[in-house]
Amino acid sequence: HDICSAVHPFGEISPFFKTLPLSDFGLTWLQSEASIAHPLDEGSNSAVLAYQSVEKTAEGLGLDKAAYTFMMQPVVDSWDNLAKDVLHPLLSIPKHPVALGRFGWRSLPSASLLANAFFRTEEAKALFAGVAAHSILPLGQLGTAAPGILLGAAGHVGGWPFPKGGAQRLADALVAYFVSLGGEVMTEWEVQTLEELPKSEVVFLDVTPKQFLNITEDSDMPSGFWGRLERTLYKRFAYGAAAFKLDYALSESVPWNDPNCAKAATVHLGGTLKEITASERGLLKGKAPEKPYVLIAQPSLFDDTRAPEGKHTLWAYCHVPNNYSGDMSKIIEDQIERFATGFKECIISKHITSPSSLEAYNSNYIGGDINGGAATLWQLIARPILSTNPYQTPLENVYLCSASTPPGGGVHGMSGFNAAQSYLAKIL
Question: For the whole model, what pTM was predicted?
Answer without folding.
Answer: 0.95
